[in-house]
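Entry 12.
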Amino acid sequence: MSRGQAGGLYCGRVQLAVVIAAHNEEQHLPAQLDALRSQHHDGAWEVIVVDNRSTDRTAEVVAERSATWPRLRLLAAPDRGDKSYALNVAVASSDADAFLFTDADDVVSPGWVAAGASALADADLITGPLDLDTLNPPWLAASRGRSSEQPMASFEGIFPFVRGTNFGMTRRALDRLGPFPEAMYPVDDIELSLRAWRSGIDVQGVDALLVRYRYRPDATSLWRQGLAYGRGRCRVVRDLVDAGDPRPPRFTGWRSWAWLVLRLPTIVRPSGRAAWLWVLANRLGQVRGSVEQRLVYV
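Predicted 3D structure (tokens):
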């Protein structure tokens, strides 16, 4: 019998756990839970939502649904606000052989659980593409390019990385790599993938492992996220440099700086403004991160 959950118990040993770390996602979480409840998979599986210091009704939303859905259980991760910490709490609570990870504000596609379970039978680490159009208005979906619609991604062509809202791992891979990297958001997925690359664990892209991804629509959230990504990538580069691994060119972003100048007239349109702010935030984040990490990666 699986470990305790709000609203009941799921009988039998769990083979696969779907994990969602949630902070103040009362508005978006129901759509994700509806999508997961409609999934069909023959194996024994559960859904774990980890409430990470929410101040809204996130926990209540999960508790209410778990009363009629024994597969769902709620955990609390109150010690600190950190997605990786919340994921570590979930993994420690489950005896599953494999895990799928997604986010509370996104929506998995039909067949996502079955596709992940099938892929994890043959691979230790998997990731998949993102659908940008379903949850975003056209102007926002077009603001960052379309590379995330591919099943695989890489960090500057050096190593492949999983997408934090859409990936899976076997228990043996987690045991080998250790816990999720805390205090590394939003590049925790890249740092985990770097460890996997160094350990010889390959990332497999799975086309059928599709998640409908939600962009942050307001300028303030977009700006803060872009700055955080830029700073975080510099921490990854510092890790590469310190380990003597290949590193990206120091002035890898020169095309983006030129793009910002050339595309300045486009900020009069919503899509142009979102794209311009995103690129600028990333570039300035890398400038700040370069200073903090004492390297050049701009």
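Annotation: The chain has ten helices and twelve strands. The mean pLDDT is 95.
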